[in-house]
Amino acid sequence: MPDSAAGTSRFPPLFRFSGPADRLIRDKCGLVTQPYDSQPGYGAYQPYGAPYGQHPPPAYAYGAPPPQVHREIERARTNAIVALVVNLIGVVSCFNVFGIAGAIVAGKALGRVTTEPARARVLTRWAWSVFAAGFVLMAAFIAVMIVLDSRGI
């Protein structure tokens, strides 16, 4: 039942009634509408100063993060996934044994992306550092082997 004294309705203001049949439904249901409801052709609210045809940004539900936070989480998740894949490719293709440790750290970062994004970024940096250190040590090992082979040792 509507509360006419308070001006509320059991239906949200989304329902706009303007035609004669709609007025009959409004009267039968006891809906209280706003004065602008009777103007046909008008849609959703457009804020003052907004360009024609543009509506206000959507409201987010309770608990949904703002878009900037969502982008940072997605960026951290993407970086962790790429670090994991590159470390695993390094293990398989180049026998980079440090890539195993880097893959483990990247996996831990991937697990913490939604709960602790700052910690996930730090772990992802560590995964990339371990990956780079493994390749530097592998390049040094190959250089030493080439030098030793050229001397005949």
Summarize, please.
The chain has helices at residues 20-29, 67-94, 98-111, 117-151.
Determine the fraction of residues in helical runs and give it as a percent range. Answer: 55-70%
Q: Structural class of the secondary elements?
A: mainly alpha
Element order, helices and strands? Answer: HHHH
- Subunit arrangement of the protein: single chain
Low-confidence stretches: 1-5, 34-41
Q: Could you give the count of β-strands?
A: 0
What's the story with the biggest beta sheet? none
How many DSSP helices? 4
Proportion of residues in β-strands: under 5%
Shape, principal axes of CA atoms: elongated
Task: List its salient traits.
153 residues, disordered N terminus, mainly alpha
